[in-house]
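Researcher: Re-running this chain for the archive, since the previous output was lost when a drive failed. Same request as before.
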Amino acid sequence: MRSMKKMTAVIVAAAMAMSLSACGGGKGIEKAGDSTTAAAAAESGESSEAAGEETTAAAETEEADSASQIIIGSAMTYTSLDPAHSYDWDAEMVLHSVYQSLVTVDPADESKILPSAAKEWTISDDGLTYVFTLNEGVTFTTGKEMKAEDVAYCLNRVKGVMGNPSFLLDTVDSVEATGDYEVTVKLNTVNPALLSILTRGSMAIYDSEVAAANGGTCDESDTFQTYIDANPSMGAGSYQITTYTSGSEVIMEKYADAQKQASIDKVIIRNIPDASTQQMEIEAGDIDFALDLTADQTALLAGKENLQTVTSKTFDIFFLMLNASEEYGKELANPKVREALKYAIDYEGICALAGNGAFTPAGIIPSGFLGYAGESTVTRDVEKAKELLAEAGYPDGFTFDCGVIPDMAPDGVSFMMNAEKIQSDLAEAGVTMNIDSQEVSVYLEGYRDGKEQAVIGQWGPDYYDSNNQLAFLPGNTVGLRAGWTEDMAPELAALGAEAAQETDDTVREQQFLQIQEMMDEASAPYIVYLQAGRTWAVNSRVQNIVPSAAFVLEFADLEVAQ
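Model: Regenerated C-alpha cells:
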C-alpha cells in the first residue's frame, strides 16, 4: 500500500486548508477586512464586477477556513491498500472507510451482520447458496453505478489473485451476477462464517471497469495492485483515498456522493512507528489520535488538558506456545509439563502489566465470540506446578528456549515484557526459560514451520466468527505450528470439523464450549494468558468516537468541535 497524484482542485483545497487551519484542521485565523471588501470597493469607485470578484474570493477563503481535518498517528503495518492483497488489521480502518462490502458489522457488537452494499440476502436450506440483493443508485467515485457485475468481479479477484486474503474464500465455489442488482454466491462446503468473512475490507467493492482496464485479470497474472496503490480509490465509501505513500502517509477526503456522509473533510494517517514519538506528538497537538501507546503512556496522558483517552475492546489473544512434538518441543512435548507451566504463571500480574482492561479468557474463544467460556478460573499455584513437574520426571526443573520478537507490541502489549514476566514466574517453579530474541522474519519462519520449541504469540482473528479459532485445533494451521497433529487428539479434531459446518448457533455454542474443555483436558500446547484491550490518546476536540474491534475506527462518525 504508493504516492499518487491528486487532481488540481484537491491540491488547491488541501493547500488552503493547511495554510489557514491549525494542525488538527480547526478554524484558522480570521482575516479582518474580507467582509468589508465589497463596501470598500464601492466606496472607492471600483466596479461592482470587481467587488463581486473580491467577495467570491473572500467566500472561498472562508470556506477553506471552515474545512476540517484530523491527523492520526499509527504504526503502519500494511504495504498495499489493494483489497485483494490487504490483510493487515490497521488497513481495515482505511478500507472500511473508502469502500462498501456486501455486508458490515455493528461496531457495538461485531457478531451482528448489517446491510451495506446489499440491502437483503437469503440463504438456501442446505447452506450452500447465498443470494444478495443490492441497493440501487449507489455510485463509485468514478461516477459508475455499482452493479452486481462489480461485486462478482471484486470477489472473484480476491479468490483468483492468490493474495494474503484469498484463502478466506476457499469454501466459495462461484460468485455470479444473476441480475443487475443480484449476486449469487455458491459454496462447495457449508460455511456459517461466510457473512462475517464478507464484512472484511478485503471484500471491498470497486469499479470493475477501471480494474479490468488497468491490469485486473482476477488470476495470478493480475497487476491491478500497482495501479490501485498509485491512484485515487474508486469505491463508494464515505471517503476516497487521494494520496497513499507506502510506509509514510494516507490521505482520505470525504466523498460527496456517498450514502453515508462524513462530517470531517479530510483524514490524514501518518506512519509513526515509535510509541514515544506518538506520545510527544499528541501532547504537542501535532496529531489528533495516537493509536499505539502502551498502558503506561496512556495513564500518563489521562486527565491532561486538551486530551482524552478512549478505551475499547479487541478480540486479540496472547499465548505461550509450547511445541507438542518430541523432536522440537523436547520436554514440552509432555502434557504433564505443559500443565505444570500453566499453574506456574501469574495471570493477574501479566494482565496488570498490559493494562487497558486486559484479562485472561478461559480458552481460545475470545470474549465477544459465540462459545466464549468466560474468564479463566486458573490461579497461580507454584507448589502444584512443582508437584506436576516431579510427576513428569523433572523434579529439578529443566531449560527451554522461547522465541520472542523484542520490538513487537500489538495493542500496546509488549512481547518482551510478557516474556520477561513469564520467565520470572517459571523460574520460581524451577524452570528456566531462555528468551531468544529474533528478527520478525526468523521468528515467523521457525514458528510457521513448527520448529520453534516455544514462542510468545498473538492471534488476531482473520474474521469475527468462532470458526476462525478452530485454527488452534490439532492438524489445523496453528496446531501444526505447535507440533500438534490430528492423530494426537482425533476426537477433538473431529469435533472441530463438525463445528466448522454447523449452522445452528445453539449447537455451535455447545460445540465450542466442549472443544475448549477437551483442549484443557488434553493440556493443549498453548497457554492463553490474556485478551487485550486498547486505549488511544485523542485530542479533546474530536467527538463522537466509535471504536470497533473489527475495523478499528468509524471515521465517518467522527466530528470536530468548532
